[in-house]
User: What shape does this take?
Amino acid sequence: MARPILFLSDLGVRDEFVGVCHSVIATIAPDAAVIDLSHGVPPTNVQAGAMVYLAPVYVMPGAYVSIVPLSVLELRAEAEGVAVWPIGLDAAGYFPLSGPGASIEELPASQAQSASGFMATFTGTLQAEVPVAKAWTVAAVDSLAYAYWRLGDAAFYYNPRYDLAMARGDWIGRNTALLLAGHPISDRVKIQAGVTDELTWVATAGSRQNVLAGLVAAVISRWPSPRSETQTFVRVGGYTEHPFRTGELTLLAGVSMTFDVRSGHGPHGP
Assistant: This one.
């Protein structure tokens, strides 16, 4: 008896391609049973767009290219300009340092400066979401990013985005792992909650940090416009490793919005 053939593809069911494949299989292996797992796997997707990261002490406008060769894998490249300025608070702004061993005493508001530069980031993300019960899902995500920063004129400086000391031109890596349970509360809103671990390290300066936290997020489809998606989150946790913040609690909240400007397309396709 011939072994069965499991058929999984991104061909869809609106045209003749699946039928053509069945005809070829029947010619080569007429006794084999063909089991159609799915033909709705998302095809390779390439996107490009503009984005801006904004915080009270910095702005980073730029552009990105994203490639999704598999439904569980995303590859992304970004390039941004960077501008940092003081706001009258300790550790808020650009702080030249004498060396990589930054401490909070070296970052008084009176010494904060402004600076500009650029960065480029390369990210690979593995992600999967599976149903586990009625209307419940579990999502696992692991994202590895490497970024090159060049900011200001000092040999070393304090980076307010990563809360670490860096060399003027330096590589920084970050691995973020998430495990989230999700449940829709309407046809447009999904709530997710779980845990996240974020490890960051700097190549030249040699500094590291790790944050372990709980995370609650809301994903709102088709808001504020029919072709947009809004995500909000709150993360509460603590530093398990840091040059001077080990043991401290951390609270982070944010909002991101995605707008698809292509005619006739939304965040989830046509």
